[in-house]
Amino acid sequence: MAVDYILYGSEHSLFTGKARAYLRYKHLNWEERLATREVYLNTIVPNIGAPIIPVLETAAGEYVQDTTDIIDFLEARHPQGTVYPEQPVQRLVALLLELYGDEWLVIPAMHYRWSVLDQQHDFIMSEFGKLSDPTASYEEQIALGAKTSRAFSGMVPALGITAETIPGIEAAYLALLDQLDSHFSRFDFLLGSRPSIGDYGLIGPLYAHLGRDPVPKALMEARAPHVAAWVARMNNPQPLAGEYLADDVIPETLLPVLATVCRDQFPDVLDAIEQNSQWLDANPGGSIPRFLGMHRFTFGAATGERIVSSYAQWLFQRAWRHYQSLAGADRAAADALLENVGGLAAMNVELRHWVQRRPGQLELVQGQMPRQGA
Ligand SMILES: N[C@@H](CCC(=O)N[C@@H](CS)C(=O)NCC(=O)O)C(=O)O
To answer: How far is CA 235 from CA 127, 152, 187, in A?
Structure first.
């Protein structure tokens, strides 16, 4: 292998965008390859156990899936220019915004891809078709994409995107664009001049869907040019450059975004954690299904029903564990921020069961909470 790492994915894939932006910032010796049907069959499914992207392959023949695991795997090997802030409150904010980008902004991302399909049909379908057959003609790719994209477009109602919730989802997304535009008019990245794991959480939905599909891209460029500029910066970063703000400062411009995480996303995640616990109580030693039925959710002014995503606990745990490790002045500073944005009770929730990933499957299993400092 001429490079140290290969990233299998695609340009229109939300999570590939997260890993790609990170790899560019870290300035590693890597290349991206399209996850074609052959790659899924011969590389991804045999090594990961499921048809999912992105996947990282190393020169030594190791395979890593899940963008968070990919980033952590690479951070351990290439610590220079880490994307995890050392300062404790900034690290907490970065972890929470990763959770928000990965698990919550997928709602507006999927809405603006699939609910306005009539205005961007050929683009979307050809992107999917290209994966199945990169050598087919544009027309053939559109026809192919119409078939292969069904698994994704079929997720839309399960994500809670319906005629009733769409107005609220759109209004809340526009409010987010305004908040982020104000933030990025002052700062290059979320926490200063260096991207953090929080930026990588947000870039997934804000690039592949909301910053690239024709309809939401035009919306972003017109309404939030500083967000569009941040997307461009994330995709074309100055490798390993930049600093986080001094004195563990959290910019005021992020407070409304954090308040949304606490108000809208936390209840959803806490319920998923409760349902995971109940499932593990009833099925000790089992693999938790990725989706545990449906529950009520709130997105801005919209309320509806969406799937319970068991995986959300895994990402939440990272922030929770970091917060729980803080003591003294650090804990007081984190508490002051959490109190301010409405997240104090959620970060103090008791986790009855720790969950972990297991190689070869996407379903989580019960794990041991790592010792502090491990
Ligand atoms: N948590 C995973 C999510 C990856 C993911 O959802 N990838 C999408 C494409 S962007 C996919 O292949 N989904 C298929 C599936 O979830 O079964 C990660 O961070 O890598």
So the answer is: 19, 24, 16
